[in-house]
């Protein structure tokens, strides 16, 4: 049975709208059919680097933005957008508050377990902060790898095999990448200490995680290019890293499109009905003296 899952807070990062391989359709499906008091978009939601080069903006990407705006308007969800490195164009506007939307660099999330620092995390990537040209070159290589991976996984799917991630394989094999992740987590632990926080929630490295790093609770929301994961705070205030497939199972919903295909533009019946409600003018009751009747077709 389909149901809308309820959370206290949702933390999502690295959607990379503008990259053809991003899973915007699945991310919209997840946000649309989850209720929360606060939605934290933790950086790299829009990939301005890709859009400046040869990026592609699809209907799915527009639908994701509309989904977030709909959460604010219809459900009163507080939305906090944290700047990432791929959407660093926002830097010139920070901080900015508009009704229940706030755009900033970092956010302190209060929890019964202590305060959690929420930050994208690119500030602790030496290449990103000090050699942007090299980071952009790396992004080009990563996007090329994704395109190749997509073709390869289409072939694997045709043969009935599970998908394979070149990027994850490279991270596991290259000692420098593994070492970088370890140092990255340690640096974020130190940042949490400096902010007097007991935990930290970040993104950036596209590696979902829920673990203790020293005495700091380290959470990484992953991404919506490969892992399709988010950090959720349940109503009992516990945290969990949840992936899209598990969320679909709990919500009783079919995955949106093919898990290997990021360009599914079909809206489901619920999407279509809600779009109709937004565009169809409200029918006013006809006045007949002291009473009013409404004819429903």
TrEMBL record:
Spans annotated as Disordered: 269-297
InterPro entries: Calcineurin-like_PHP, LpxH-like, Metallo-depent_PP-like
Acidic residues: bias regions: 269-278
UniProt feature, compositional bias: Polar residues: 286-297
Domain Calcineurin-like phosphoesterase: 8-208
Keyword line: Cell inner membrane, Cell membrane, Manganese, Membrane, Metal-binding
Gene Ontology MF terms in the entry: metal ion binding; UDP-2,3-diacylglucosamine hydrolase activity
Pfam families associated with the record: Metallophos (PF00149)
GO cellular component: membrane
UniProt-listed GO biological process terms: lipid A biosynthetic process
Xref: PANTHER family: BLL8164 PROTEIN (PTHR34990:SF2), UDP-2,3-DIACYLGLUCOSAMINE HYDROLASE-RELATED (PTHR34990)
The protein's name: UDP-2,3-diacylglucosamine diphosphatase
């Amino acid at each position: 049975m389909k149901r809308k899952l309820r959370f206290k807070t949702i933390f999502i990062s690295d959607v990379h709208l503008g990259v053809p391989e991003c899973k915007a359709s699945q991310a919209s499906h997840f946000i649309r059919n989850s209720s929360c008091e606060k939605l934290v978009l933790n950086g790299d939601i829009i990939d301005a680097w890709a859009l400046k080069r040869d990026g592609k903006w699809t209907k799915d990407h527009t639908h994701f933005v509309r989904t977030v705006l709909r959460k604010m308007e219809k459900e009163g969800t507080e939305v906090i957008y944290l700047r990432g490195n791929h959407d660093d164009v926002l830097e010139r506007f920070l901080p900015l508050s508009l009704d229940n939307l706030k755009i900033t660099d970092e956010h302190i999330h209060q929890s019964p377990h202590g305060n959690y620092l929420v930050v994208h995390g690119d500030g602790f990537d030496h290449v990103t902060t000090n050699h942007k040209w090299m980071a952009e070159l790396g992004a080009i290589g990563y996007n090329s790898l994704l395109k190749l991976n997509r073709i390869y996984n289409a072939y694997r799917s045709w043969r009935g095999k599970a998908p394979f991630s070149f990027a994850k394989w490279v991270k596991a094999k290259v000692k420098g990448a593994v070492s970088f992740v370890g140092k990255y987590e340690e640096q974020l632990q130190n940042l949490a200490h400096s902010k007097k926080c007991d935990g930290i929630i970040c993104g950036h490295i596209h590696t979902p995680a829920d673990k203790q790093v020293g005495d700091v609770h380290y959470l990484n929301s992953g991404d919506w290019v490969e892992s399709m994961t988010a950090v959720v705070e349940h109503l009992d205030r516990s945290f969990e890293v949840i992936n899209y497939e598990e969320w679909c199972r709990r919500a009783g919903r079919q995955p949106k499109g093919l898990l290997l295909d990021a360009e599914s533009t079909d809206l489901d019946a619920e999407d279509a009905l809600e779009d109709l409600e937004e565009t169809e003018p409200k029918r006013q009751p006809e006045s007949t003296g002291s009473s009013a009747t409404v004819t429903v077709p």
